[in-house]
Structure formats: C-alpha cells, structure tokens
Write a structure and sequence with these properties.
The protein is mostly helical. It is 54% helix and 5% strand. Helix 18 packs antiparallel against helix 19, helix 26 runs antiparallel to helix 27 and helix 31 packs antiparallel against helix 32.
Length: 1094
C-alpha cells in the first residue's frame, strides 16, 4: 500500500483548503482599525471653543456606583402590577418600578440596546470605549486582551479618580493594572451561580460606606449563568433576580447626594438563556439611572428616548463625572439628563443640552477626521457630507455663543442628527473588506476543489507516481520565497499570506498540469478504457445525479431562507438521493431477479451471478435499510434547535439538561430513555464485533471492547445522574456530589484516552489457532497448507463467513503483489484465523464507538437518543451502499472492487450535516453549547485552549464521527461478501457456496488498488465538504452588502469553514488508522509465516 504517497496527497490538499480559508477570512472579517489616541483635559472641549482644563471644573457628580447585572434583559426589569401569575423572571425587581414611579425626577428606566455580537467582552468594550465592535471580535470573547483604545477607565484614572472593581474577572484582562483596587472572581463556569455574586457582596457594602473610592464597578454574573444553565423560565432565575432586587435596595440606602447610581445589563438573552447574536431578545438589556439628588430636569415625556444605545452611556457618564469623552467614542449624550437651555426652577446644575451636544459633536468630529486620515475606508461622499454638516453646525453654534443667544431647538436637533449620521456611517463602513485577499482565497479554494475532483477520477494512475508532489512542492516553495523577497525589497516587510498564496496556486497549477500529462500518456498507451470520455466537463458533472444534488446543496447556501431552514433542507436532499439508489437499480433491471420469458431462446437470457433468492435477499436488505434511514431522518427532527428567525419553531425539549426539568416523573423518564440509548449504543457496537468474530483475540482492541467501553458507558450514566441532582436536594451530600461532578467526567476522559491509546498500539482483532493436518491417505501431492479466516468461533459463523485458501495469497501480498518462490513443505499444520475478514473495519468501528461515547459526554444527556439514531443511520447508509454494489456487481453491471461511487459519498456528507442539526446545533453563535467547556471542570479553566477545544468537539461531533468512519465506505461492500452476495475477483461472478469470499483481504492482495480506492474515497469526501465551503465563501463574497450578511451568511461561513477544518483533520485520523492496521497486518503475517517460507 502506498501509505506515504496517499497521506502526503491528502495533507497537501487539506493545506490548500486551509490556505484558501485563511485568505478569504483575512479579507472578509477584518478587525476595525483602532485609533490609539486619548482625549486630554486640555483639549478644546469647552462650549465656547476657548481652551482650558475641562477636568478642573466642578463635576455634576463626585461619585458613581455602576452595578452591571450580566444578561439583565429589559423584560426582567419591568414590573406589571396587573400580572397576577408572573413567570419566574417577571416582576422580580419591584424596586425599579417603585423608584421610577415615586421619584420620577430622580430615577428612570430605559431599554438599553447593545450592538451585536452580544457577548460579554464585546459589550464591556462597547460601553467603556463608546466604539462599535466588528464581527470578528466574537472570537476574542475567550482570549480577552487588554483594550488599547481610549476608554472610561483610563480617563477616570487620568483624572485622579479612584476606581474600585469587583466581579467578573474579564475586566481584569481587559484593563490590567488600571484599578485602584480590584477583586476579580472566575467567570467562565456557567454552572456556578453564586461564587461571583457572593464574592461581590462580601466587599460591596463595606467599600460603599468608606471613603477610599470615587467610582465603584460591580459586575454580577448569577443571572447570566442561571440563564445558561436553566433558562429564564426556571425557579432559580426567580431566586437570583430576587437577590438582585435586595442588592439594589441595599445600595440605594447607602447612596449619598453627590453619587450617581447606574444599574445596567450588558445584553439580554433568548428564551433558552443564550446570547451572542443580534435578535432583539439578545440586544435589549435594561438601564436604571438614579441619584438621591435631582437627576432629571423634567418629568418623563414623549421626548424621552424609547431605547438608549449602549454607546451613549460613555459620553453621558464622562460629562456627568467631569472627564473628557474617550477619543474613539461615537456615542451620543443622553439628553434627558441635561437641562434644556431655557432652564427651569430647580433644574440641576451643570452643562445644558446644547453645551453637552456641542462637546460631544466636537469630540466625534475630531475622531472622524483622525480615523479617515488613517483608514481611508469611509466613502468620500459620506465624509464630505459629514464635514459640510459639521462646518455649518459649528458656525451656527459659535455665532449664537458670541451673541449670547440661547441655542434654538432646531440647532439642538441638528446636532443630534449629526451624531446619529456619524454613528450610522461608521457602522456601515466598519464592515471593511479586502477584495484582493477575498479573490485570492476564492481562487485557491476553487483550484483545491478541482484538484480533489481530478485526483478522485485519476486515483488509479496517480498512485503509481511516487514523485507526483516532489517537483510541484519544490517550485511552490521557491515561488513563495520569491514573493516574500519581493515584498521585503519593495515594502520593507513580509506579509506571509501572499507568500502562501503564491505557493498554493503554483503547486495547484503544476499538479493539474502533471495530471493532464499523465492522462494523455495513459490514453496514448491504451490504458484509458474510454479515451474520449471527458469527465472534467459540465455535461458529465450534470449527468451524475449525486453531483447534481451537491450542486443544489451548494446553491441553497446563497439563500438566507434556505440557510435558516438548513436542517430540513439537508434532510430532504438526503432522503431524495437515498431514493435514487433503488429507483436507479430498478430502472437498470437490477433490483429484482430477471423474469424468464418462455418466448425467448434460452441463449438470449442474461446469466445472473446469483440465484433469484439471493437477489431478492439483497434487494430486501437494501429496501429495509432505506426504511431504517427514513425513520432515523424523521426521528432526528425531534432534536433540532430553533433560530430566532423561525418564530413558529419550538426547540427540542431534549436540548435542555435534566437539571432544568421540574417534573420529577418526566425527569426520571428522560433519564431512563437516555440510559437505554446509551446501553443500545454499547450493545450494537459489541454485537457487530462479536458477529464478525472480532472479540476472540486476547489483544488490546478486544480488551477495550470488553472493558473500556462498558466502563465508559457506566461513567456517562453516573455523570448524568449527578449532574441532574439539584444543589439543594441533598445538602449533606453536597461535597460528594461536587466530587462526582469532577471525578466521573475525568474518569471517562481517562478511559477514553486509554482506549484510544490501546487501540492505536494494537489495532488487530484477529484470533489465530493452529490444528494438525489431516493424515495422508494417497500418494498425491499435498496441497499447500490451508489458511482459514473466519469471523466467529461458532460453527454457524464459520459457515457464513469462512475465508479459505488465503495462505498463498497472503504470502504474495507480503511483497506488494510479488509471487512467492519458495514451495511449502508437506504436513504443515493448517491455520484458522477469526476476524481476519473485517481486520480493517473492526478497528474503525471500535474507534467510532469510543469517540461517540466521548463526544456524547460533552452533550446534554437527552442527545443520547440522537447519537443512537446517528449510529443506526450510519449502518443503514453502509448497508445500502453494500447492497447496491452487490446488485450492480453480480448481475453484470460494471463495478470495481475498490471504487466507491459518488452517491454514498454525497449521502455520507449530507448525513454529517443533518446530524449537526440533529444534535441541537445551528450555524449561529447563540446556539453554541458553552456548557461543554465545563464537563469535568466545574471550577473553570486557567487557559482558553482546553475549553475552546471541548466546545469545538461538542459543536462538530457529527462531522468528527462521519469523517473518522469515512473509510468504512470502502470496506463495507467487502465485509458483506460473507452473505454470499458479492462478485468474486475483478468483474468475475461466483456462485453461492464458492469459497472465494475473502472479504477485506481482497484489498490486501492488490496494494495499488487499495491505495487507489482509499485515495479516491477521501478525495471525493474532501471535494464534497470543500465544495460546501466554497459555496459559503462565494455567498459571503457576493452578498457582503446584503442585509442578512452578518446575521446569516457570515456565521454560516464561520461554521462551515470550522466544520471543514475539523472534518479534514479527522478524515486524516481515519486514514491513519487504516494505515496503522495495514502495517500491523503485514507484521502479523510476517510473524505467522514460517522462516523457510519468507
């Protein structure tokens, strides 16, 4: 087997896709340019335009207390006295309603709208800098780095104000060494509802009554974590909101007249407790403003804003506390907090509305001028219009100040419109694209897809070229170095992406040119069966139904409606293509036995390779597998999640962990169903291995099957029970439960690691026994010793799965097909081997079983039934592929022993996408199951690599399992030879009872054919997956100005690209396992054969 060549080709193809994705993402998801300049007290910020020290003036408030209740959505803060049966999250903060109704000039409650993405780090950045986040900032939520832009924390420190922080430790990483005092608490464990909040309460009140602070920041996390763990509609949410109500009341009692209180949420949450997207439930938080002294000049009126953008908090707090507005802020001051220019009796002192707006406008214009000179990405028309508006407003305002006139309401409205226009322009501009990188990424991905298709069609020729990649890779490296040297010479620095682009495109072009030459040479030598067949043409592509289905799948990615309904679209395509298999067989007359026509001469009748009963058996197996597949697809729809665009949709109840269920009877039923599904998974795995004789060996793989898999299942079941136990149910056992939450997953992880290591070290499941040869009864020459490979020890298994006469075959295969020249000695004992017929597929099946249990550990226990359906669907697809191959091969249809058609490959990929949705995932960030990061780590992590890995494994579990199991498509038709339904040899036909069913050893006999089949299968799978990535890339590029680009197409691109990265890695894992088994089989035969026969 050409192991190194096949592995090198696959690694090279994957690297090409990685380079293409990196290039496109680098041009599509760029981070906004940050202006690293800061505002100063001496800047020209005063209303009259004169210079002065703005910070030396008397601020309106000397102190401020900012309580951030994470995920405090506006629905939590409102109070409805008419609601007599409130839900757990309703009417739990009555203090806000009491203060706003009893003291309307001192307190006000507003909806507080965040800019997406609604993740905590981006929201902190938004309401401290006043800037707008970009889409790519989402990824920084787990690797928060220090904020370099000007911000409130920096300005407060520069003004000499003592900022005391307590709560979410994200602030400490964003603002290191910026606080006068800091009391951070670990924040990433979403199952922990109390540690952060209780830690804050230990210090909050003592600090407030002291005098060692000016600004107090307290970031509570209990509400957010409760939403993630239980959802908003749970009694635990009522308890947590009630606690926050008490906290606010206690803080109100300790406030002084010169202190401003801000109670705010950073984002909202969905009905399932998640956030991260841009639905209104996620973006609309609450903000409550209060001061013991008069805060609002006028009572509430229709002029009050309906919604307050989060960026508006930055300039508002800055001017109220007497510090400069941060340099990069694009927010607008909240006018109801400032007195109108007409003034009024009892109006609070400080800046008027026009003065506050003028300072705000000057600051925003200064930022706009600086940014436009640095970035050059704001459209010139918009920039010119904004500059004209500012010049006009500046002239009007200065004229009124110089004449001691009060600014008119029209001028105030014009100043507001200018600030709104700047923010809207920046929001539209900061989706910056790099067309050159995007085009280069698309070109590399397109060439990679073409290469996968070419390699799959020419695999039999290319595996003979051991130096296929040597020259292209050398030239590619030289091309990349030349580009890097040119950049260094002309620009003074090297941008690695362009060097990678040059290397990738060069190697792609050279390999395509080499493949074209090889095909021409094959046609000239007559090796090509049909030299006029042009498989790399559109007509041929469209004449292949599975490729047409793939084309439809890719085309659907350009429609936001289809992406939103992707789960059902993929299920429909999967079932449609599955129905094509029996329909095509029936059309070709292969599904049923030929009917004898007495009017035709016997010589004109086809000669079937099997009896009619065997053909009916294969057809029945095919149709039964199709029925199982249809049932699995239908049942899998029960496990789908819902996007917020699908208003009619109800998410699956199986997505909620048992801890959220209040009905104990329903909880017990769900737990028993999960245990039954887990037991069925383990039983099916062991039953298949036992059926094919793979549990008789004393090797490590059998040990894993007999002991590791059951113990791993037990750990999962116990872990689910412990996780579902309410914290307050068994107070005496609290420590034991906490220990179980750590120990059981860690034991499962350890067993999984042990099983994978043992399986890699000793993947063979073959049992060998020797018996004495029969006595010689005649002088005829003895036959060579018979080598029997069975799939079971029982006589019945031997009868159905016997593989005789392999001794000579295996000896020849040791030398890659060269015949042995040493004759055998007489009287040598015969050898029987059990499990040899499935020597390649058995380790793969066991590997998938182990990985499936490990991935199930990262999911809610309700997903165990979905995983069982996934296993059954895999088996149904494999059985359909085997039966269709058998029917095609036995009745004279052209068939190759190692060629896997396009249909099962496309079905395999569609099934992976289908179960991505059927395990509760969606291509949206709010649907990510963050709880997976804390399985086995309830106290959180010290770094980000491990939790990110666990979340990735959880999200793309279906892609991982189908990718690892992909080589089974090559082996399964050979495994099913044991049923007596497979053509013998290459195109030959055997009758039932013939002893030529050598199953997977057929590939071992022909190393080149084995390599060709494996290369063809994996390149086709990479082509199908890569084509979907290419379609997502094209959709994002074409629709980059579409209304739904950041809500639908960009997340889909990120998930599709990430899924391809994960799938390609685990395809290589599956191929590596096949090669490891092949190496072990070779060594096993070398040990088995006598020294004289080597």
């Amino acid at each position: 087997m050409k192991k190194l060549l096949v592995l090198a080709l696959l690694l090279w193809l994957c690297a090409l896709f990685y380079v293409g994705i990196l290039l496109f993402v680098g041009g599509f998801l760029l981070v906004r340019l940050e202006v690293n300049r800061t505002s100063a007290c001496g800047d020209v910020l005063l209303p009259g335009g004169q210079r002065g020290d703005f910070c030396q003036g008397q601020p309106r408030f000397r102190r401020a207390v900012v309580l951030i209740i994470d995920a405090l959505k506006i629905d939590f803060a409102r109070f409805d006295s008419a609601n007599k049966e409130p839900r757990p999250f309703e009417n739990k903060l009555p203090v806000l309603e009491e203060m706003t109704s009893s003291r309307p000039l001192h307190a006000r409650l507003y909806p507080f709208r965040a800019d997406p993405p609604t993740t905590t780090m981006q929201r902190i950045k938004g309401f401290t800098t006043g800037s707008l986040p970009t889409f790519i900032d989402m990824g920084n939520n787990f690797a928060s780095s220090a904020i370099l832009e000007d911000n409130l924390v920096h300005q407060l420190g520069e003004a000499g104000k003592r900022v005391v922080f307590m709560g979410d430790d994200t602030w400490e990483s964003l603002y290191p060494k910026k606080f006068h005092r800091s009391m951070p608490f670990p924040s990433f464990n979403v199952k922990d509802l109390h540690t952060v909040d209780n830690g804050i309460l230990q210090h909050l009140y003592n600090i407030m009554v002291g005098d060692d602070w000016d600004v107090l920041l307290a970031h509570f996390l209990g509400v957010d974590h409760c939403g993630h763990r239980f959802g908003p509609d749970h009694p635990a949410m009522a308890d947590k909101l009630t606690q926050m109500d008490g906290v606010i009341r206690s803080v109100l009692d300790r406030l002084q007249n010169d202190t401003l209180l801000v109670v705010m949420g950073d984002h909202g949450m969905t009905d399932t407790g998640d956030h991260g997207g841009e639905s209104q439930k996620e973006t609309d938080a609450a903000i409550f403003l209060y001061s013991p002294s008069r805060l609002f000049p006028e009572p509430p009126s229709q002029r009050d804003p309906e919604v307050v953008p989060q960026t508006d908090l930055v300039p508002t707090l800055a001017l109220l506390l007497g510090i400069p507005i941060p340099y990069s802020s694009v927010g607008q001051v909240l006018l109801p907090l400032f007195a109108s220019d007409a003034g009024g009796a009892g109006a609070p002192a400080g800046l008027s509305q026009a003065e506050a707006l003028w300072i705000n406008v000057k600051q925003v214009n200064r930022f706009l001028e600086t940014y436009s000179s640095m970035a050059k990405d704001i459209p010139s028309e918009s920039l010119s219009r904004l500059q004209t508006d500012f010049t006009r407003l500046s002239s009007e305002y200065r004229s009124m100040v110089e004449q001691n006139l009060l600014p008119t309401p029209e001028l105030v409205a014009s100043l507001q419109r200018y600030l709104t226009s700047v923010r809207d322009t920046c929001r539209a501009t900061w989706a910056r694209f790099n067309p050159a990188k995007m085009a280069a990424g698309i070109a590399v991905l397109a060439c990679a897809c073409v290469l996968c298709y070419v390699l799959s069609e020419m695999s039999s020729m290319l595996v003979r070229e051991s130096r296929l990649l040597r020259a292209p890779l050398v030239v590619a490296v030289v091309a990349g170095m030349c580009v890097a040297a040119g950049q260094l010479f002309t620009q003074g620095h090297v941008e690695g992406t362009w060097a990678l682009t040059a290397a990738a495109i060069t190697s792609e072009v050279l390999v395509l040119w080499r493949a074209r030459r090889l095909r021409r040479a094959a046609v000239a030598d007559g090796a090509e069966c049909s030299p006029r067949r042009r498989w790399l043409t559109v007509p041929h592509f469209l004449a292949t139904p599975p490729l047409v289905v793939l084309l439809l799948r890719c085309a659907s990615l350009l429609s936001d409606s289809y992406v939103i309904a992707e789960g059902r679209v993929v299920s429909f395509l999967l079932l449609s293509l599955s129905l094509y298999i029996p329909l095509r067989l029936h059309w070709d007359g292969l599904l049923l036995p030929p009917v004898h026509d007495p009017l035709k001469p016997a010589g004109l009748l086809p000669s079937p390779g099997l009896s009619p009963s065997a053909i009916r058996r294969e057809s029945g197996t095919l149709l039964a597998s199709l029925g199982v597949l249809a049932g699995c697809v239908y049942l899998s729809l029960w496990f789908h999640g819902c996007r917020e665009e699908q208003g009619y949709c109800q998410p699956s109840p199986f997505l909620s962990p048992l801890a959220r269920l209040q009905d104990s009877r329903l909880k017990n039923l769900r737990y028993l169903l999960s245990l039954a599904s887990l037991g069925a998974w383990t039983y099916v795995l062991r039953r298949w291995l036992r059926h094919y004789g793979n549990l008789n060996s004393p090797g490590c793989a059998v040990f894993v099957t007999r002991w590791v898999v059951p113990l791993l299942s037990v750990c999962l079941g116990l872990h689910w029970a412990v996780s579902a136990t309410p914290e307050d149910s068994f107070r005496n056992l609290a420590e034991l439960i906490a220990l179980g939450q750590r120990a059981l997953p860690m034991a499962a992880f350890s067993l999984l690691g042990l099983g994978l290591a043992l399986l890699w070290l000793d993947p063979l499941t073959v049992f060998v026994k020797a018996r004495s040869a029969a006595p010689v009864r005649s002088p005829v020459t003895h036959q060579p010793p018979r080598y029997r490979a069975s799939t079971g020890v029982s006589p019945q298994a031997e009868l159905h799965h016997l593989i005789p006469q392999l001794y000579q075959r295996m000896r020849r295969s040791l030398e890659d097909g060269e015949p042995a020249s040493v004759p055998e000695c007489d009287g040598r004992p015969a050898v029987e081997a059990y499990g040899l017929g499935t020597v390649y597929s058995a380790p793969l099946v066991l590997l998938c079983g182990l990985l499936g249990l490990g991935l199930l550990l990262l999911h809610p226990e309700g997903m165990s039934l979905s995983f069982l359906l996934m296993l059954l669907e895999m088996g149904a697809l494999l059985q359909m592929h085997a039966s269709s191959t058998t029917l095609n091969g036995l009745q004279g249809a052209p068939s190759g022993d190692s060629a896997v058609p396009w249909t099962p490959v496309v079905l395999w990929s569609l099934a992976a996408s289908q179960f991505f949705h059927a395990t509760g995932h969606l291509p949206t960030f709010p649907s990510i199951q963050w709880a997976a990061a804390f399985v086995g780590f309830p106290d959180g992590h010290t770094g980000t690599a491990l939790p990110a890995t666990l979340v990735v494994l959880n999200t793309f579990s279906s892609c991982i399992l189908f990718a690892v199991a992909c080589p089974l498509l090559l082996f399964w038709p050979l495994v099913c030879e044991g049923r007596g339904g497979r053509a013998g040899g290459r195109g030959g036909v055997r009758e039932e009872g013939d002893d030529n069913a050598i199953m997977e050893m057929r590939l071992r006999e022909s190393p080149l054919q084995f390599s060709s089949g494996l290369l063809q299968l994996t390149t086709r799978y990479l082509f199908v997956s890569g084509a979907q990535v290419f379609a997502s890339v094209c959709a994002a590029a074409i629709l980059r100005r579409h209304l739904m680009v950041w809500k639908v197409f960009a997340p889909k691109l990120m998930f599709e690209a990430s899924g391809f990265l994960v799938s390609s890695v685990f395809v290589l894992v599956g191929v590596s396992m096949v090669m490891r088994v092949d190496l072990a089989v070779g060594r096993w035969f070398q040990r088995l054969l006598p020294d004289t026969s080597r």
